[in-house]
Design goal:
6-stranded mixed sheet; about 325 residues; 7-stranded mixed sheet
Length: about 325
């Protein structure tokens, strides 16, 4: 059923004046690189005079476990909302189903587009793709782009964005290769790009998979520029040999840039999304508390409806992006 990571109160159940938030992240498994609680620890401890209690589960990146845990959070813990990393469409659908059946808000802080899903995402990141990536290509006279991406919604999102950018930025999509999320290294056919006529490559993957593709390309002799998405920019990059990490470009948001230079580390980019979720709840819950009691069906319903309206507004906002690179053992702004 997956491991229960942490409860705010172990000896006793939280008082039902508390607002309970069920959090499902992948702390182990193929998406473990994204399990950091960066952003969640900065959530408000109280909202509207009521204590905020986070109940956390590890779904190990397994959609089946995610569904079981979501049901347990709703049925046994009676949470008022669900928050998840949801790094794959199937994982998100599993939690969405539970949220929809129980009329509970599901706030998604992971890198999955919201198209076709019933529950809103609190992040505009998937909808505000880093044009900075394509602008950098144009400014460096890069024309021919090879694409390696997941054969799922995340890969589709970036492949479509690259195809749309061809005319605007003078790019040419010269080679495309898709691969299964969570597959082993032998399942990722990177060899065709070694001698392909490309000026640079774009890897549309997340976490460890993106880093694996990067290493494979370098080890097979590809020395060209490699662009990544905000789904793969994480501190795991520093663990690979310097020669494998060289000449790679990652998009990052301003708050991430600040952390890079203040702490010399690159936290995972779910952080800003998690902070967005916390801020949204901080804005919405006080007015609901004036009419409804946490733990009640009416409170859940009101919170879900309020988040849907708030998210619909936030999707029109764009996020500012900067490009960074990791060379010679240090993060730096890309030139």
């Amino acid at each position: 059923m997956g491991m229960l990571l942490a409860l705010t109160s172990v000896a006793t159940s939280p008082a039902r004046g508390d607002v309970l938030i069920g959090v499902i992240l992948s702390s182990t498994g193929p998406s473990a690189i994204w399990s950091s609680t960066y952003g969640l620890e900065d959530w408000p401890k109280t909202i509207g005079g009521e204590k905020i209690t986070l109940i956390r589960y590890d779904d190990q990146g397994d959609p089946g476990k995610a569904a079981i845990q979501a049901k347990r959070l709703v049925a046994e813990h009676n949470v008022d909302a669900l928050v998840s990393g949801s790094l794959s469409p199937n994982e998100r659908l599993a939690i969405d189903g539970v949220a929809r059946e129980n009329n509970v808000a599901h706030l998604v802080i992971g890198a999955v587009t919201s198209a076709g899903f019933d529950s809103p995402t609190t992040s505009d990141a998937p909808h505000s793709l880093p044009d900075a990536v394509f602008e950098h290509m144009k400014s460096h006279a890069i024309k021919r782009i090879g694409f390696l991406g997941y054969s799922d919604a995340w890969g589709d999102l970036w492949l479509n964005a690259l195809q749309d950018a061809e005319v605007k930025y003078g790019l040419q999509l010269s080679a495309v290769q898709r691969f299964t999320r969570g597959g082993s290294s032998v399942d990722i056919p990177v060899g065709r790009f070694i001698n392909a006529e490309t000026d640079a490559l774009l890897i549309a993957a997340t976490g460890a998979s993106a880093v694996t593709v990067q290493r494979m390309l370098r080890q097979l002799g590809y020395n060209g520029l490699i662009y990544h998405t905000h789904g793969s920019a994480a501190d795991h990059v520093v663990d690979i040999p310097a020669q494998d990490a060289a000449n790679a470009i990652f998009p990052a948001t301003p708050d991430i840039i600040f952390t890079i230079f203040a702490k010399h580390t690159l936290p995972n980019q779910l952080g800003p999304n998690a902070l967005d979720a916390g801020r949204m709840l901080e804005q919405l819950i006080p007015s609901i508390l004036q009419k409804e009691q946490p733990g009640s069906i009416s409170f859940r319903k009101a919170l879900r409806e309020a988040t849907e309206v708030a998210v619909a507004r936030s999707l029109h906002k764009e996020r500012t992006w900067t490009l960074v690179t990791f060379d010679s053992g240090a993060w730096a702004l890309a030139q």
